[in-house]
Design goal:
Layout (H helix, E strand, L loop, with lengths): L5 H8 L17 E4 L4 H17 L4 E6 L8 E7 L8 H12 L3 H15 L8 E6 L5 H14 L3 E7 L2 H13 L11 H16 L8 E4 L5 H12 L5 E4 L14 H8 L13 E5 L6 E6 L5 E4 L1 H19 L6 E5 L5 H10 L4 E3 L4 H8 L4 E5 L5 E5 L1 H9 L5 H16 L7 H15 L3 H5 L7 E6 L8 E3 L4 E4 L3 H9 L6 E6 L6 E6 L3 H18 L12
Parallel strand pairs: 2-4, 4-5, 6-7, 6-8, 11-12, 11-13
Antiparallel strand pairs: 1-3, 2-3, 8-9, 9-10, 13-14, 15-19, 16-17, 18-19
Helix pairs in contact: 1-4, 2-3, 2-4, 2-5, 3-4, 7-8, 7-14, 7-15, 10-11, 10-14, 17-18
The structure holds 2-acetamido-2-deoxy-6-O-phosphono-alpha-D-glucopyranose (16G) and magnesium ion (MG).
């Protein structure tokens, strides 16, 4: 317990000067940009983490240094709240203000404002756990966080090179240790043991599937999947490719979940042949997509929507077989969910579906409203949340028949296998594998649940993307005024046509999504809407040739 020494804060802050004129925003995934611009930001995020900890009775706050699927020269930083959730939204504004304080004196003023506004006690103890991915810029940014923690006298826990979900996991473990909600051992060994034990419970008796090729995006997922293999290798043959975390320029380059999802093809060099099973993680391993080649060698993607469908159908069956009543299962998607997936969930699985704005935190919050909330973005971010009511019901359920007992045990194992703090590519991969092993199905059979509508995503560069305002979970534009009516008129004639326009939260562009019954219609629709946005809402530069 010691008051904050503001003179010392100023002295140390002088070593981490803000680049003049740059405006930082704490967006959907924290701060993210060229790594060379981030030194002052990470220093200040370290300060904020300590303040947040002081505010929350000295609970441990997490700091993750990663730029996920972005190019290697980028980096980013985000905060994790005590139970592994994303930083509470009202604090995003404090983060933005701290990052934008122009001088060391301004910084002190902002800190003092935050203390007053949030009513926190600056002299309280604080505790922060931090980790980074494999980016070359990581160690220097970690040092900036450490400078901040030192000057505020915070307890600093270095978790090393980790995936984003591991950091979320350990944050929750640290804050629940010794309580009835203890989440697990607050170590990496504890993380793998928890996943490994649950996976074994689910698949021990099942015939093995063929090998799974795991594209690790040349990122932190590579060494982690190898570690996982040591724990689950008896049941599953994991072959890691794109595992070069040392050669400069390779991270996320022509590989990884984002590449595969946006390019709709396997990473070059993988040689995806019919019969192979493959998946791709992103650069910080919080996102996963599966894929295979069909008999004709054609690439087939099993994205986050497909994972949500598989997961929901498996859990619905288990809950039914277990005979546990009074459990409300729901699925949360965004506007990017393929129309066929929503139709499958609604009409075939007959499960309630909610649609929320893009970004993990929105899905996570909505999923908390169900007893079992399955949430996935089409891009492969997602997990399943079990409410305490669901967990208690599963724990206290007593099966009569052997089928019931198995279903109850499997549900119980799932609550441990699935990372409850955030979407986790490694945990999701084991979850998918356990379902496929239980059902003894191929990727193709999984894919047969429904057929995706052809879809396309187009970027439009505009003078000011902030003029775009959306409503109805980003499915409709309210501003620029009149544009939505024009979009509706263009979409109307297309069979199963759907399109929406939203400003990106991570790039300086506007995104156009379109889907329709045929590939040709879909492309035409997407490029017509993109052309409309370009012409009517301040398109910048040369009008792309493909725009209609
Ligand atoms: C961020 C979000 C992701 C979202 C994406 C959308 C997190 C951890 N990540 O990466 O969920 O899909 O942004 O990007 O929330 P966009 O706004 O540029 O389309
Ligand atoms: Mg990521």
């Amino acid at each position: 317990m010691a008051p904050i020494d503001y003179n010392k804060v100023k002295l140390v802050s002088a070593k981490h000067p803000k680049p003049p004129g740059v405006k930082f925003t704490y967006g959907t995934a924290g701060f993210r940009m060229k790594a060379e611009l981030l030194d002052s930001v990470t220093f200040r995020v370290g300060i904020l983490a300590s303040l947040r900890s002081k505010k929350l009775d000295s609970k441990t706050i997490g700091v993750m240094i990663t730029a996920s699927h972005n190019p290697e020269e980028d980096n980013g930083v985000k905060l994790v709240d005590p139970y592994g959730e994303m930083l509470e939204q009202s604090w995003e504004e404090h983060a933005t203000k701290l990052a934008n304080a122009e001088s060391d004196d301004d910084l002190v003023n902002v800190i003092q404002d935050i203390i007053v506004n949030t009513g926190l006690d600056g002299s309280k103890d604080s505790s922060v756990v931090y980790a980074r991915d494999t980016r070359p810029s990581g160690p220097a940014l970690v040092a900036a966080v450490e400078d901040a923690l030192k000057v505020l006298g915070a307890k600093a826990l270095d978790f090393g090179v980790k995936t984003t979900p591991e950091l979320h996991y350990v944050t929750r473990c640290l804050n629940t240790a010794g309580t009835k909600d203890a989440y697990g051992e607050p170590t990496e060994e504890g993380y793998f043991k928890k996943l490994g034990d649950a996976f074994r419970e689910l698949v021990e008796q099942k015939p093995h599937l063929s090998a799974l090729t795991v594209d690790a995006a040349n990122g932190v997922g590579a060494p982690k999947v190898r570690q996982l293999s040591e724990v689950v290798g008896k049941f599953i043959d994991l072959r890691v490719v794109n595992d070069d975390i040392y050669t400069k320029g390779k991270l996320n380059f022509q590989c990884g979940a984002d590449f595969v999802k946006t390019q709709q093809r396997a990473p070059p060099g993988m040689n995806l042949v019919s019969g192979m099973r493959a998946c791709s993680l992103d650069g910080d391993a919080d996102r996963i997509v599966y894929y295979y080649a069909d008999e004709d060698g054609k690439f087939r993607l099993l994205d986050g929507d497909k994972i949500a469908g598989l997961a929901a159908s498996f859990i619905i069956d288990l809950v039914r077989t277990a005979g546990i009543g009074d459990i409300k299962i729901g699925v949360v998607q965004t506007a990017y969910a393929n129309g066929s997936s929503t139709a499958y969930l609604t009409n075939v699985l007959k499960v309630p579906v909610s649609c929320v704005p893009t970004g993990v935190k929105h899905l996570h919050h909505e999923a908390e409203k169900y007893d079992v909330g399955v949430y996935f973005e089409a891009n492969g971010h997602g997990t399943v949340l079990f409410s305490s009511h669901a967990i208690n019901s599963i724990r206290s359920a007593k099966g009569g028949t052997p089928e019931q007992v198995t279903a109850i045990n499997q549900l119980s194992a799932l609550t441990n296998l699935i990372n409850q703090t955030v979407g986790d590519a490694i945990s999701d991969m084991l979850f998918v594998e356990s379902i496929l092993m239980n059902k003894q199905i191929t990727l193709r059979q999984w894919d047969e649940a429904y057929t995706d509508l052809p879809n396309r995503l187009v970027k439009v560069v505009v003078a000011d993307r902030h003029i775009f305002k959306t409503t109805d979970a980003e499915r409709k534009l309210v501003e620029p005024k009149g544009l939505q009516d024009k979009i509706n008129a263009i979409v109307a004639p297309y069979t199963e046509g759907r399109s929406f326009v939203r400003p990106s939260g991570t790039e300086d562009v506007v995104r156009v999504y379109a889907e329709a019954a045929t590939r040709q219609d879909c492309d035409e629709l997407a490029f017509k809407i993109a052309g409309l946005v370009f012409d009517e809402a301040g398109g910048v530069g040369e009008r792309p040739k493909e725009f209609l």
